[in-house]
Amino acid sequence: SNLAQTYQVDIIAGSVSNQIGQNIYNTAFSVLSNGKCINRYNKVHLVPMLSEPDFMSPGKQVPEPFELSDGTLATQIICYDLRFPELLRYPARSGAQIAFYVA
To answer: 77, 81, 79: which is closest to 66 by C-alpha?
Structure first.
């Protein structure tokens, strides 16, 4: 948030471990140039070959579209989610013009 304000840029970031209650999620987030966090996305598809399901919980929400400072609609997903293109149908149909893939 401080970096976004200092440099007057939108920041699309992740992924970070994020504990919510008893669950740990792989989370990406977006912060506007004014420092406001406008989007959080928890990775839906965990990587079985890396044993992610053993220590992380999958997100339960599809990625939402969000508006960048310049008005562009965007969305974001994380790494292995790339292998499941149907995950982007909702944000694409909702007008998202950019999909950020944090990997």
So the answer is: 77
67: which 2 tokens?
């508006």
Would you say 49 and 20 are in contact if contact means Cβ atoms under 8 Å apart?
no
State the residue for tokens 């999909």: 99
Residue 14 pLDDT level (bands cut at 50, 70, 90): confident
Q: How far is CA 53 from CA 34, 46, 59, 79, 90, in A?
A: 35, 6, 11, 15, 25
**Do 87 and 58 contact (CB within 8 A), yes or no?**
no
**What residues form DSSP beta bridges with 101?**
77
pLDDT of residue 100 exceeding 90, the answer is yes
Note the Cα 2 to chain centre separation in Å: 19
What does pTM read for this prediction?
Answer: 0.90
